[in-house]
């Protein structure tokens, strides 16, 4: 990631609002400025930012605030992917189509690496984006469910702090749970 | 497991040793994450690290399946695996430290010792009581392959939204049911289900919107009354083939559902049909089957009864017909059997779908049905076989459907090129509606298309 000095503003909204959208409501063009834990500045359309329950309640508490909203628990990399998800989601708010939404969600996770998914979970949780959290949890479950313990540890980046005796005991205790695991 | 783009990345991840951002999350979030896994795999996370050791004990969504097979391949491994599963269940019931459950799915394909099963059921009963206090059991799903009575308190869950039962569950103790929030009830291949149990279940579920009822073999011979004021979707499948019939009575299906909007009925067993109060019905998907020499009702009488049934649902906007059994209907009955000849009945029809469009002796109706000139917009013919009659029928619809927007024809993939050409020439037929788009596709592409749609 380039330093914030070189690249001070990452504009999340790359596509300029088309004339039709712009005429819809004056509000749709309004941008919210958000600052991530690694000091990246994001300018996000209000409608997208309101998908983040945490940000939404910030503005409910201070409706006229024009300040930059700090997101101390949110690093820029997963955040930009979260924004990508929410931009897709708001399309379905105006035009609900469950089949298309599912397809879009599965497309979203399919392109993501394991690392991407794992990093987005705390962000989705902090920003309280329930739909995204569900999509991520399901994707993670699909990727780890028939995998070995070693695989799952490395998937999440978990350090094993069990002694080998403790581990053997747990394996024996829950023998059934460790059956039918795919080869890594 | 779904093939994902993750393959290459795992390799990187394994080498890179990702920073552990997950273990820092609160217990509740991790438990929620574990609830997306089958319980077997959630328990397996106990070994990841000490942080994870006891998390599974608080997960409130349980999904248990005893996937053990291969007894004939290796009886001793089978026995050991079964033993492991029994231990797993025992420990699960004893060690969970959160007695309340939100969703519980139990699929038992093998049979187990009675004392074992009784113990599990009494643990389950305890969970349900503690959950009932919290009032939060939302979903219960049971697939059980041996005779079992579910705990009595299960039939009284305030917040239960979905209940699916499948297999050999016994209902002989079912006295009363109290499901004030139940929206979806699925009763599938339940060997012990009778009409009394169905009535008790329906009358105890005043908010029920969806009922799925499947009966097969000898069980499908029982008469059924579906009577509900709240029901919006009804899916019935009675499959009864090669079962000797008791000639002392006729199987009867009665549907009385004034708010029903969607009906799917695949019925090869009912000898009497009655549909009452179908004023709200918008969509019907129907497949009737008459079994010659088996039914205790003559073919003429049966055909008349089905015609009457069509009269009762004549307000539907979308109709899907599957006449897979039409070949069994002979002589006069064919013209009476509800098919395209009966379209005048359907005054509001917008969308018509026909599976196996084969129509033995297609002859155009005396006058053009009103729905063709005023409202029918979409026609789908599936399994086109290019036999005589079918082509004429399609041509008739193209000519007379004046507001038709789209006609889709799927043909069987074993059709000869010349037969496909016949079909393709149809697009040059005179069209009653200029706006009509004709789509002709081989069957496999159609089903693939549907598969992507449903996902």
TrEMBL record, chain A:
Domain SKP1 component POZ: 30-88
BP GO annotations: jasmonic acid mediated signaling pathway; protein ubiquitination; ubiquitin-dependent protein catabolic process
Pathway membership, UniProt: Protein modification; protein ubiquitination
InterPro entries hit by this protein: SKP1, SKP1-like, SKP1-like_dim_sf, SKP1/BTB/POZ_sf, Skp1_comp_dimer, Skp1_comp_POZ
Keywords assigned: Ubl conjugation pathway
UniProt domain SKP1 component dimerisation: residue ranges: 130-177
Domain of life the protein comes from: Eukaryota
Renumbered residue ranges of the record's region Disordered: 1-22
Similarity comment: family membership: Belongs to the SKP1 family.
Subunit text: Part of a SCF (SKP1-cullin-F-box) protein ligase complex.
Function as written in the Swiss-Prot or TrEMBL entry: Involved in ubiquitination and subsequent proteasomal degradation of target proteins. Together with CUL1, RBX1 and a F-box protein, it forms a SCF E3 ubiquitin ligase complex. The functional specificity of this complex depends on the type of F-box protein. In the SCF complex, it serves as an adapter that links the F-box protein to CUL1.
Protein name: SKP1-like protein
TrEMBL record, chain B:
InterPro entries xrefs: F-box-like_dom_sf, F-box_AtFBL13-like, F-box_dom, FBD, FBL13/AtMIF1-like, LRR_dom_sf, LRR_FXL15/At3g58940/PEG3-like
Domain FBD: 370-441
Pfam families to which the protein is assigned, alphabetical: F-box (PF00646), FBD (PF08387), LRR_At5g56370 (PF24758)
PANTHER family: EMB|CAB62440.1-RELATED, F-BOX/RNI SUPERFAMILY PROTEIN-RELATED
Name listed for the protein in its UniProt record: F-BOX/RNI SUPERFAMILY PROTEIN-RELATED
Lineage of the species this protein comes from: Eukaryota, Viridiplantae, Streptophyta, Embryophyta, Tracheophyta
């Amino acid at each position: 990631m380039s330093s914030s000095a070189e690249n001070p503003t990452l504009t999340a909204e790359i596509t300029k609002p088309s004339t039709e959208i712009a005429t819809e409501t004056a509000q749709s063009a309004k941008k919210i400025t958000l600052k991530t834990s690694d000091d990246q500045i994001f300018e996000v359309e209000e409608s997208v930012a309101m998908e983040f329950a945490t940000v939404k309640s910030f503005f409910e508490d201070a409706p006229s605030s024009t300040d930059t909203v700090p997101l101390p628990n949110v690093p820029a990399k997963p955040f930009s992917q979260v924004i990508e998800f929410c931009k897709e989601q708001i399309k379905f708010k105006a035009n609900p189509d469950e089949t298309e939404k599912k397809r879009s969600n599965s497309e979203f996770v399919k392109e993501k690496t394991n690392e991407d998914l794992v990093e987005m979970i705390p962000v989705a949780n902090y920003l309280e984006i329930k739909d995204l959290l569900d999509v991520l949890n399901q994707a993670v479950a699909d990727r780890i469910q028939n995998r070995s313990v070693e695989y799952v540890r490395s998937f999440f980046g978990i350090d094993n702090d069990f002694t080998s005796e403790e581990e053997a005991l747990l394996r024996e205790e829950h023998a059934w749970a460790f059956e039918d695991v795919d080869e890594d | 497991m779904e093939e994902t783009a993750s393959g290459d990345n795992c390799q990187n991840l394994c080498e890179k040793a990702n920073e552990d951002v997950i273990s820092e999350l609160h217990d509740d979030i991790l438990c929620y994450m574990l609830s997306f896994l089958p319980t077997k795999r959630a328990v397996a996370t106990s070994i990841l690290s000490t942080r994870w050791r006891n998390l599974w004990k608080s997960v409130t969504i349980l999904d248990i399946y005893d996937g053990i097979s291969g007894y004939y391949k290796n009886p001793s491994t089978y026995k050991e695996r079964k033993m492991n599963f029994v231990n797993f269940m025992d420990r699960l019931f004893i060690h969970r430290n959160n007695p309340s459950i939100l969703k519980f799915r139990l699929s038992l394909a093998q049979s187990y010792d009675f004392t074992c099963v009784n113990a599990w059921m009494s643990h389950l009963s305890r969970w349900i009581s503690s959950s009932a206090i919290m009032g939060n059991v939302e979903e219960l799903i049971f697939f059980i392959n041996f005779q079992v009575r579910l705990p009595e308190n299960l039939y009284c869950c305030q917040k239960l939204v979905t209940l699916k039962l499948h297999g050999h569950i016994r209902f002989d103790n079912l006295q009363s049911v109290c499901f004030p929030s139940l929206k979806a009830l699925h009763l599938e291949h339940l060997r012990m289900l009778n009409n009394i149990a169905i009535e008790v279940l329906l009358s105890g579920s005043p908010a029920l919107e969806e009922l799925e009822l499947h009966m097969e073999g000898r069980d499908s011979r029982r008469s059924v009354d579906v009577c509900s004021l709240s029901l919006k979707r009804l899916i019935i499948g009675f499959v009864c083939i090669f079962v000797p019939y008791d000639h002392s009575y006729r199987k009867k299906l009665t549907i009385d559902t004034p708010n029903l909007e969607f009906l799917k009925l695949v019925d090869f067993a009912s000898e009497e049909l009655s549909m009452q109060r179908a004023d709200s019905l918008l969509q019907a998907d129907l497949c009737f089957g008459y079994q010659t020499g088996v039914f205790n009702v003559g073919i003429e009488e049966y055909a008349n009864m089905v015609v009457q049934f069509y009269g009762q649902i004549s307000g539907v906007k979308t109709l899907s017909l599957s006449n897979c059994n039409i070949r069994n209907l002979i002589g006069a009955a064919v013209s009476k059997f509800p098919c395209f000849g009966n379209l005048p009945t359907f005054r509001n029809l917008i969308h018509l779908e026909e599976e196996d469009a084969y129509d033995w002796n297609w002859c155009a109706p005396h006058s053009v049905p009103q729905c063709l000139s005023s409202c029918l917009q979409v026609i789908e013919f599936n399994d086109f076989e290019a036999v005589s009659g079918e082509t004429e029928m399609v041509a008739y619809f193209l000519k007379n459907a004046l507001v038709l927007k789209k006609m889709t024809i799927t043909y069987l993939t074993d059709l000869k090129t010349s037969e496909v050409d016949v079909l393709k020439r149809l697009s040059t037929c005179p069209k009653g509606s200029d706006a009509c788009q004709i789509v002709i596709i081989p069957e496999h592409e159609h089903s693939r298309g549907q598969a992507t749609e449903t996902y």
